[in-house]
Amino acid sequence: MATTxxxxxxxxxxxxxxxxxxxxxQHVKPGKGGAFVRTKLKNLKTGKVIENTFxxxxxxxxxxxxxxxxxxxxxxxxxxxxxxxxxYEQVSFEKELxxxxxxxxxxxxxxxxxxxxxxxxxxxxxxxxxxxxVTYTEPGIKxxxxxxxxxxxxxxxxxxxxxxxLFIVTGEKIKVDTRDKSYSERVK
Length: 188
Description:
Layout: E1 2-3, E2 12-15, E3 18-28, E4 36-43, E5 49-55, E6 59-62, E7 65-76, E8 79-84, E9 90-93, E10 109-115, E11 120-125, E12 129-137, E13 151-156, E14 161-165, E15 173-177, E16 182-186
Antiparallel strand pairs: 1-6, 2-3, 2-6, 3-4, 4-5, 7-8, 7-10, 8-9, 10-11, 12-13, 12-15, 13-14, 15-16
C-alpha cells in the first residue's frame, strides 16, 4: 500500500479494478479545504487516458510491472511470435497487444510489459523509431507542390503505408516514428 505522497510518473496502481500508470500528477493545496492530487492515469490494457482527483493521504494499491526484452521472430494465424532475449523462451502475442504491429520486421527488438504478480502480458512496445526500407513510392515531380511540406504515400518493407516527403524514392531507408506511424528522417 502507498499513499498519494508516493505518487510519481510511471507508477502502476490498481484503480477501479484495473491497472493504470500515472502519466502526470500535481499536488494541490488550496487556501481553503483539504489538499488533493490531480492525476492523469493511463489504462495499461486499453491505452485510454483518464483524469482523476485523489484526496491527499488516500491509500492506493501499487502493482508491480516488469519490462522484458524480446525479439520478433514471425507471424502466423496463431499470432505474433517473439523470443525472450535472455531465456530464449518463445511466446506469442495477439495483434491487439502490440502498439504498431504493421511496423514489425524479423529480428526487431521490442519490450513486453508484464504484470509481475499474475504473469500476464499487458502490452508490447516497439522502440520509438525503426529504420525501414521504402519498397514502393511514386516518383516526385519537381515543381509539383506549392508548399514545402507536401507528402506522398510510400510502402515500406513490412507492408505498411507511410506518408513521406516528395524527395523520398524507392530503395531508400527511412526512420519511422512508431508512436504515430509518421516519417521522421532519412537514414544514412
